[in-house]
Write a sequence for this structure.
C-alpha cells in the first residue's frame, strides 16, 4: 500500500526549516521525501496544509473520560473520595473500553498518535487501542498498601504476555502508582520484574505538596535500572533534579492537571537546563478536562515564561510534545524521516492566526489549536481525517459510552 | 428581517440551566425564546448545537496581528525596542486596517462579538469594525512623556466626534496608555474630557514589576469619576484591591500575555472576592499570540486553582468572559434574553470532549476550544458561519495583510 502526500509544508522535526515537499508512505513507513515520480495507491493533495510529527501524550488515564466534568471546583479530597473513587469502584471492563475509545477519538482529533496509560481493566484499553489503530504504552496501576499488591502485579505480567508488541501498536509496561501507595519493597519487586522483561515503568512522583519522601530511597530500588516515566514532579526538591538527568529517565509534565487539582507548577525550565528529558501529558479527563497536547505544550511554555520571557524556546516546546515524548513512550520516533513509521499529523494552516506565514514555527507553539488538526496518521493509516474517524463506528462508541455513564452515575451524582 | 434559530441547546447566562429551545431574532434583537409559530425569513436548524452569549475581549491592540510571532523567547526590552517599536514607527493607516481585519476574522471565528481596542490610526480600526460588523470600543493610545500629548488628545476627541455610536457598533473611549507614559496632569485632563463626553477610559495599570507608582495618586485624578477599564493589574498591592471595587471600574485580566511577557499572574481570585468586576482580554497578538477568549477564560481559571482547586467556579469563569466583559465594554449585555441585541455564538457540541453531555456547563469552561465555535452573530447578523465570513472578501483582506507585512518587515527582520 503506497500513499502519496503532495504539496505539503513539512516540518521534519523541531530544528529543521519548514519546506514545501511531498511524502511517499509505503507499508506504514515513510519511504521517500522530495520529488516523487512513482505511482501511489492513494494520492492526497495537501496544498495549504502542514505535515509534522504526531504528538505523544506521556501520561493519561484514558478511560477517565467517563468522569469528565462530574466534579468541578471541589478540593482534592472531596473530589477523590466523594466523586472519583465511588465511580471507579463500579467500573467494568466494558466501561473502560468505551471510556478509552472516546479518549482515543479526542486524542486522534487533536493530533495525538501515541499515549501512555495507567489504569485497570487493561485488556479493554489494549483492545480499544488495537481496534482504533492508535499506539499505546499501557501499564496496570499497581498499589500494595491494601495488601493486594501481588494480585495486581500478576495481572500486569499476564497482560504483558498477552499484549506486548501486538500489531506493532501496543507496548506493555508496569505502573506502580506512587511512593505513597506502594511500599519501597513493592516498587523494588515491580521494577525487578520490569527489568527482566525489558519493560518500561511509569510512576507518579511528587504530584502534591504532601509528598515528602526521599528520592534517594526510591532510586535505591531496581527502578534505577529501568526505563521510567516519572509523572508530575511538581514538588521535587532542587537537589533531586540532577538525579533525574539520566538516559533512561523521563519526566511527564502535566501542567493543566497540576494547576486544576491545586498542585502547582513543575520546575520544567530547571529540569531542561539540567538535561532532564521532559515530555508532556494530559493526565485523565477528570482533572484536565481535555486530552490535548497542543494545549499542554502552549501552557507548559507560558508557565515557565512567567518570570522570564526567554524561558522555553519554540524548539524546546516542540521537542517536549514530539521527540522527547516519542523517546519516553518508545512507540514512535517523533521525527519524519525515511524509514520511520508514518506517525504524523496534518494541520490546516490557511487560517488568520497562522499569519504572517513566515513565523510558522512560532505559530505552531503559540497560535495553533488542536482543532487546526486536519488529519492524524498512525503507521500509515488515517485514524482521523477531516471530521471522520475511518477505523471505528462512531455511533456505536457514543452509545456504549453513554450507557456506561448511565450505569456509573445512577446512584452517585 | 426575522431569523429563527431552531432546536438549539440554550445557555441564556452563566447561572441558568441549559435547555433545548428556539430563538426568534427580529431586526437585530432577540424577540422571542421558546415555542415559536411565526414564519421567519431565514430558519436555521441548530440540532446538536449550543447557543450562548458572545464573548467579549476587553483588552487588545487588534492591528498587532501584523507582528504575530516576529520575536519569540526574547526579554521584554529587546522585544519592545528591537522588534515592536521599529515596526510600529512605520505603520500606516492602511496597515492598521488590514491588521485589524485579520484580528476580527480570528475573533469572529473564536466567538468574540465585541472588543476593546487601544491603538492609533483609529479611523482604520473603526472602519474595519463597521465593514466587518463587529462591535468595538475604540480608544486612541495617549502618551505625553514626549511632550506631544495634546496633539494625541485632540485626535482622540476628533475621532470621538466622527465615530461614536456609528451603526450601533462603535463606541469611542479615551486611552491614556499607562501611569509611566502619562503624567498625572495629563491623565487628569484626559479623564476630564472623557467625563464631559460621557466616554469610557482604558489604561494599562501595574502590568510589570517595575510599576511602583501609588494607586491613590492615579485615583486622585478625574479618572475616579470615569468608567474605567484597568488592563492587567498584575503587580497590584493587596491594599489597593478594595479601591477598585467600584461600579464604574473594571479590571481586564490578560493571563496569556502576562505570562508570555514575563510579568506573572494577576490576583484575580482576590479581586473577585472583593467584588471587583473582572473581565478578560487577549492583549495584542504580538504578545499572546492568539485572540481567543475561551483560551483566556480557561487559563485564568486554571492559574487561580494552582493553590486551591475550589478557586474560580465555572459560573465565575463564564461571567468574566460574558457578562462582566459586556458591562465593561458597554457594547452588549452578555445575556440572551428578549429585547437584547442578538450577540451570540453557536457551538458544535457533538464532539467527544463534550461527553458526558450532562456536565456541559463545566465543559464550556474546561473542555471547549475556540474552534468548537460554529457561528458568531452580532446584532442579528452572522459575522462567521461554518467556515465562512459572510461580511467580507477574505482574499482581498489576506492580500492586503500580506502586503502590509512585507512593507513593515523588509528592513527590520
Amino acid at each position: 500500500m503506497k500513499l502519496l502526500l503532495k504539496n505539503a509544508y513539512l516540518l521534519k522535526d523541531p530544528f529543521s526549516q519548514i519546506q514545501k515537499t511531498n511524502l511517499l508512505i509505503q507499508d506504514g513507513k515513510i519511504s521517500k521525501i522530495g520529488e516523487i515520480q512513482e505511482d501511489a495507491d492513494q494520492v492526497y493533495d495537501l496544498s495549504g496544509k502542514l505535515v509534522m510529527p504526531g504528538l505523544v501524550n506521556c501520561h493519561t488515564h484514558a478511560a477517565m473520560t467517563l468522569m469528565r466534568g462530574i466534579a468541578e471546583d471541589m478540593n482534592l479530597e472531596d473530589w477523590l473520595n466523594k466523586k472519583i473513587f465511588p465511580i471507579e469502584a463500579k467500573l467494568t471492563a466494558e466501561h473502560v473500553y468505551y471510556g478509552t475509545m472516546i479518549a482515543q477519538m479526542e486524542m486522534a482529533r487533536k493530533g495525538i498518535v501515541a499515549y501512555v496509560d495507567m489504569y485497570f481493566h487493561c485488556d479493554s484499553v489494549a483492545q480499544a487501542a488495537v481496534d482504533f489503530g492508535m499506539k499505546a504504552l499501557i501499564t496496570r496501576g499497581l498499589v500494595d498498601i491494601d495488601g493486594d499488591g501481588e494480585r495486581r502485579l500478576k495481572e500486569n505480567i499476564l497482560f504483558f504476555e498477552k499484549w506486548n508488541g501486538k500489531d506493532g501498536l501496543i507496548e506493555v509496561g508496569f505502573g506502580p502508582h506512587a511512593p505513597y501507595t506502594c511500599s519501597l519493597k513493592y516498587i523494588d519487586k515491580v521494577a525487578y520484574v520490569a527489568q527482566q522483561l525489558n519493560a518500561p515503568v511509569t510512576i507518579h512522583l511528587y504530584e502534591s505538596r504532601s509528598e515528602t519522601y526521599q528520592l534517594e530511597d526510591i532510586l535505591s530500588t531496581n527502578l534505577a535500572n529501568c526505563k521510567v516515566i516519572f509523572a508530575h514532579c511538581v514538588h521535587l526538591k532542587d537537589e533531586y533534579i540532577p538525579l533525574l538527568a539520566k538516559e533512561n529517565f523521563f519526566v511527564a509534565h502535566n501542567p493543566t492537571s497540576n494547576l486544576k487539582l491545586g498542585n502547582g507548577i513543575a520546575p520544567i525550565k530547571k529540569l531542561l537546563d539540567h538535561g532532564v528529558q521532559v515530555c508532556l501529558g494530559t493526565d485523565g479527563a477528570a482533572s484536565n478536562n481535555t486530552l490535548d497536547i497542543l494545549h499542554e505544550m502552549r501552557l507548559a511554555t507560558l508557565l515557565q515564561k512567567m518570570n522570564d520571557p526567554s524561558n522555553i524556546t519554540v524548539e524546546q516546546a516542540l521537542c517536549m510534545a514530539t521527540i522527547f515524548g516519542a523517546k519516553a513512550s518508545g512507540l514512535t520516533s517523533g521525527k519524519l524521516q525515511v524509514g520511520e513509521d508514518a506517525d504524523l499529523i496534518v494541520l490546516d494552516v490557511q487560517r488568520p492566526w497562522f499569519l504572517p506565514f513566515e513565523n510558522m514555527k512560532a505559530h505552531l507553539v503559540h497560535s495553533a489549536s488542536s482543532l487546526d488538526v486536519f488529519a492524524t496518521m498512525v503507521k500509515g493509516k488515517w485514524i482521523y481525517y477531516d471530521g471522520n474517524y475511518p477505523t471505528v463506528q462512531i455511533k456505536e462508541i457514543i452509545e456504549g459510552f453513554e450507557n456506561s455513564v448511565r450505569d456509573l452515575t445512577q446512584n452517585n451524582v
